[in-house]
Known about the structure:
Layout: H1 3-16, H2 18-42, H3 45-48, H4 54-93, H5 98-139, H6 151-177, H7 181-185, H8 199-218, H9 222-257, H10 259-262, H11 265-307, H12 309-316, E1 321-326, H13 331-347, E2 352-368, E3 371-374, E4 385-391, H14 392-399, E5 411-414, E6 423-426, E7 429-432, H15 439-453, E8 460-465, H16 468-481, E9 491-498, H17 502-518, E10 522-527, H18 528-581, H19 586-623, H20 631-664
Parallel strand pairs: 3-6, 4-8
Antiparallel strand pairs: 1-9, 1-10, 2-3, 2-4, 2-9, 5-8, 6-7
Helix pairs in contact: 1-5, 2-4, 2-5, 2-6, 2-18, 4-6, 4-11, 5-6, 8-9, 8-19, 9-11, 9-19, 11-18, 11-19, 11-20, 12-18, 13-17, 18-20, 19-20
Amino acid sequence: MTKQLFAKLAVKNIRSNKQIYVPYILASIATVAMFYLMTSLVYNDFLVERSSTLPMMFMLGSVVIGIFSFIFIMYTNSFLIKRRKKEIGLYAILGMKKKHVALVLFLESFITSLGSILIGIISGQIIGRFVFLALNYLLKFPVSMEYPFSVEVALITFADFTFIFLVALLYNISQVTFSNPIELVKGKQSGEKEPKSSIILFLFSVIFLGSGYGISLSIEDPIGAILYFFLAVLLVIAGTYLLFISGSIFILKAMKKNKKIYYRPNAFISISGMLYRMKQNAAGLANISILATMIIVAVSTTVTIYVGTEGTLESRFPYDHNATVFELKDTEDVSEFENIVRTETENAGLALTDYSSYRYETLSGSLENNAFVVSGSSSASLIPAEMMLIPQEDIERMIDAPLELEEGEVAIYHSKGPYSASTIELAGQVHPVHQFTDSSVKNKVEEQLKVIEGNNLVETIILVTPSVEGTDSIIADYVEENPELFVFGTRAIIGWNTTGTEDDKIANSHTMDKILNEAGFSTMLDSRDANRQEWYNTNGGFLFVGIFLGLLFTFGAILITYFKQVSEGYDDRDKFQIMQKVGLDKQMIEKSTRSQIVWMFFLPLLIAVMHVAFAFPIIQKMLLFFSVTDTTLVVLCIAGVVLFFSLVYWIIYRITSRVYFFIVK
C-alpha cells in the first residue's frame, strides 16, 4: 500500500465522518483562536501600558486557557475516537496492519490539526481586530487601540497546540495498539464503568478550596492581596477540578445508597445517568465553572473601576487642589503658604471656599506588644506598617476643637481597629495614650484621622503628639537608637477648593504650582480636574480589558457547553431508545433527562457564584489599588454581572438543550 493511498483513505475518512469531524474541527479552531486572543494580550502595547500588573494577569489567563485547551481537546478527541472504533476495528479485521492504521490516523490528525491551528490563528487575529474596532467605537477612547499581528504569539500558539494534538494522536494510536479488532468493533457500544469515588481526592478538593478561600478571608491589606491572589486562584482551580471529578461522584454515590431518594423513577434515571457519565463530564463542568468565575470577576471589577471613577477621584484628590509640601515645618511657613494660595486665587478671579492643612512625619516598622519597632529591628511583619506623627495643633485646627493632650501623651488611630492599651512604647520611651472625656471630640478626631489615612495600602498608625517638638523628640529618639535609620523629615498635606469652571481650576493649578516653587516651597501639586481625563482613559482601558476577557471566556463556556451537549446527545440516543423499549414512559424519560441536564448545566454556575462570594474580600482589597473604597458599588457591580451572566447562561442552556434533545430523538 502506498502513502498516496493512505492519504486518500485519510481524506475519505474525514469526509465520511463529517458528522463528528466538523464539530471537532470547529471546536479545535475556536479553542486555538481563544488561546491566540488571550496570549496576544500579553504582547499588546496599548493594554500593557495601562498597568504593570496586566501582563502578569494575561500570562495567568494564557496558562489557564492552555490547560483548558488541553483538557477540552482531549475530551472532544476521546468522543471522536470512541465513535470511530468500530470503523478502525473493521480495518484490522479486513487485514490492515496496526502500523498502517496508525499511519492513517496520523494523516487524519495532521490534516485536521494543521488546518485547525492555521485557521484558528487567522480567526483569532480577525476576531481580535473586530473586537478592538468595536470597543474603540463604543468606548470612544482618545487614543486608538491597536491590535497588530504578532509572529511570536502565532509561534507560541502553533507550538502549544502542536503538542496538544500530538498527545491526542498518541492516545488514539494507543487505542489501536492495545486493543484487539473485536474490542474495537464493540467499542462504541461498550458501556461506561461506574466511576470510583476517592475520599482522598475529595478531601484534597476541600483542602485546596478551603486554603484558597482562607487566603481571601484572612488577607488584611491590599499588598498582601496582590502577593497571594495568584496562589489563591491556583488553589481554587485545583480544588474545583478535584471537586467535580471526585466530590460529585462521592455525593452521587451517597444519594444512590439512600433508598428514599434513589428508588423513584425520575431520581433513578437522573442519578444513574449523572453517575455513569460524571467522570467524562467532570472536566468540562469544572472548566465551565472556572470560566464563569473569571467572567464575573473580570467584568465586575473593571466595571466597578470605571463606574467609580468620580468617587475614586474624590478619594484620591479630596480637594480641587491637593499639595504635598516638603520641609514645611514652622508655623510661619504654614501661614506664608496659605497667604500665597489666597492671594493668587483672588488674582485669578476665583474664590477660596475650603482650606485644610496638616504637617506630619513618618516611620516604617511594626506594632509588637504595644511597642512600635522600626523597620530593620522588626521580625513580626513582612510588609512594614506606616506610622504618621501629626502635631496636636494641626488636628485641632481641622476639627475646630481642643484635644488637651498632656506633655508626653499621645492619641492613637490604628487602621486595624481601636488601640486598647493604655500606653505605647516609642524608641524605648513609654507614652500614655490619651483618654478622651468628650465623646463628640473623640468622634471628630477619629473621623478626621480616618480621612487622613485615606487609601493607604498598608497598615497605618496615626500618632497625634502634643506639639511639633514632641514629634521631633520621638523621631530623634528613634534615630539615636538606630543611627542608620532614614527619615523623610517634616512634610505637609494641604488642600483647598475654589469656585470656577473646570478649565479655570486647571489653569489656576498650573499657575499656583509655578508661583509656589518660585517662592521657595518644594511642592508637588495635583489638580482633581487636571487628572480627570487621564483617569477616565486609564480606567476605560481596564474596562476594555474586562469586556474583552468577558467575551473571550463566555465564548469558551459556550464552546464547551455546546460540544458537551452534542457528544452527550449522540451517546444517549441509543440509551434513550432502549429505555423506551423496556417500557419506560417517554414523558418520564424526557422529564428525568431534562432534570439531569439542568443539574449538569447550572451546577458550574452555582459553584462559580460561591467562588466569587468567597473571593469578595480579596477583590475588595485589590480594588483599593485603584482607590475604589465604595463597598456598596463593588457589591452592586458584582451582583449585576452575576445576574446578566446568569441570563446569558440560561439562553445558552435553552439553545444547547434543544440541540441535545433533537439528537436524542
